[in-house]
Predict the 3D structure of the following.
Amino acid sequence: MNTLRRSLLILVALALIAFAPATALGGTSCHTIDAIGVGQDLGGGQTVAQISNGGLLQGTTAASFTITGFVGTIASFEGTITFWTNRGSLTASVAGTLDLATGAFSATTTSLVGTGKLDGATGSLAFDGVENLATGAFSEVVQGSICLDLAP
């Protein structure tokens, strides 16, 4: 009797497993970003750029920055930059500095928000470049890592 009961319990357990909803096993896919950008400072803290060799972030950007302070010729700033790609958009909050004597700038991300296939993106980015202070044209290198969930 015990053997019959045990066999019946095993069959019921197997039936429940077979008909239980499947649990999707996800993961994370991280992508190295090593892009170059060429852009224009439009004035008033607004910039636009074309990003190439950017993998996930290849496309265009628009940014809006606010000066937060000065130390000598170095201006501190913060703001947001939005990447538009064929996968969606990624908006990064950034903080950085601009040397008003040389045009050299550097910034890092403080948070990321994505849409489309970039929804839920995590990671960090660093922006380093030089702006021609007479014309507003700039070039930059964008480096970092973006991670995406692979859940279905």
